[in-house]
């Protein structure tokens, strides 16, 4: 039987500068330590803005914190004339374990197509980063195509050049649930997570069995347990609530 370690990830979006990030990570670490959080039982990671990553790395390595971290995006290219872009090599050099790819805010506000997302996934893998591949349907998609068609197609496209069994995390984030306060139901999340897992399993049975699938979209302390009780939901990608230490800690400690 494959066991998948539950994973709670905080997407800070464009919040907290490098000084604020130091205070925040220290407080979060103390809060979880005080609560005797077992990081081996529920993995935790944060996704700060690029300019915070060096501070976060220094703090985490100095205090030997078991907190993971990664970038919110990366370039599809490794180096060169790409003003304003960040290479996966730079994220690796800062010992990032993960990188978010294809968040709906990047797909809609930065015109990231499925092709761009696929190129970024291979860039992440090339640099030893685990891509957290974000997929999800808009309210319109849901009405026109039903719950799973768009997320499954986005996942398939994202993995176009990724090989049979890449080391990835998938985040199912219905666009209508992000930042809206209106989360999907646990049953809706399970239905799509199962379809995403079937897509992975079709590619490679082991990939389907071991890949963690997260739910994201208005996750709070009050609804996390319902999502985590679903057989195909292995964690959460948390936006707004990840900036509130007591709330995020309660989400991490959903079993308590
Ligand atoms: C997100 O942006 O990944 C997200 C899930 O946001 P929120 O939790 O605020 O809905």
From TrEMBL:
Catalytic function, reaction form: D-glyceraldehyde 3-phosphate = dihydroxyacetone phosphate
GO CC annotations, alphabetized: cytosol
A Pfam family it matches: TIM
GO MF annotations in UniProt: triose-phosphate isomerase activity
Major subcellular site: cytoplasm
Pathway: Carbohydrate degradation; glycolysis; D-glyceraldehyde 3-phosphate from glycerone phosphate: step 1/1; Carbohydrate biosynthesis; gluconeogenesis
Sequence similarity: Belongs to the triosephosphate isomerase family.
Subunit record text: Homodimer.
Protein name: Triosephosphate isomerase
Organism, scientific name: Diaminobutyricimonas aerilata
Source organism phylogeny: Bacteria, Bacillati, Actinomycetota, Actinomycetes, Micrococcales
């Amino acid at each position: 039987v494959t066991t998948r370690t539950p994973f709670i990830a905080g997407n800070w979006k464009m919040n907290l500068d490098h000084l604020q990030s130091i205070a925040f990570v220290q407080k979060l670490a103390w809060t979880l330590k005080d609560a005797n959080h077992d990081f081996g039982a529920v993995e935790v990671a944060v996704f700060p803005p690029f300019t915070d990553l060096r501070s976060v790395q220094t703090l985490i390595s100095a205090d030997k914190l078991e907190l993971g971290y990664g970038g919110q995006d990366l370039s599809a290219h490794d180096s060169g004339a790409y003003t304003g872009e960040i290479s996966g090599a730079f994220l690796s050099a800062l010992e990032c374990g993960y990188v978010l790819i294809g968040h709906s805010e990047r797909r809609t506000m930065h015109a990231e197509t499925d092709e761009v997302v696929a190129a970024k996934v291979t860039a992440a893998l090339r640099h030893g980063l685990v891509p957290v591949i974000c997929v999800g349907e808009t309210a319109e998609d849901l009405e026109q195509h039903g719950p799973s068609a768009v997320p499954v197609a986005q996942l398939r496209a994202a993995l176009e050049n990724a090989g049979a069994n890449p080391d990835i995390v998938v985040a199912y984030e219905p666009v209508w649930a992000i930042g809206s306060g209106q989360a999907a139901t646990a049953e809706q999340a399970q239905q799509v997570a199962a379809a995403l897992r079937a897509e992975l399993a079709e590619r490679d049975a082991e990939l389907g069995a071991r890949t963690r699938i997260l739910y994201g979209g208005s996750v709070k302390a009050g609804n996390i347990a319902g999502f985590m009780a679903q057989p195909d939901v292995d964690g959460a990608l948390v936006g707004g609530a990840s900036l509130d230490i007591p709330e995020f800690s309660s989400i991490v400690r959903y079993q308590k």
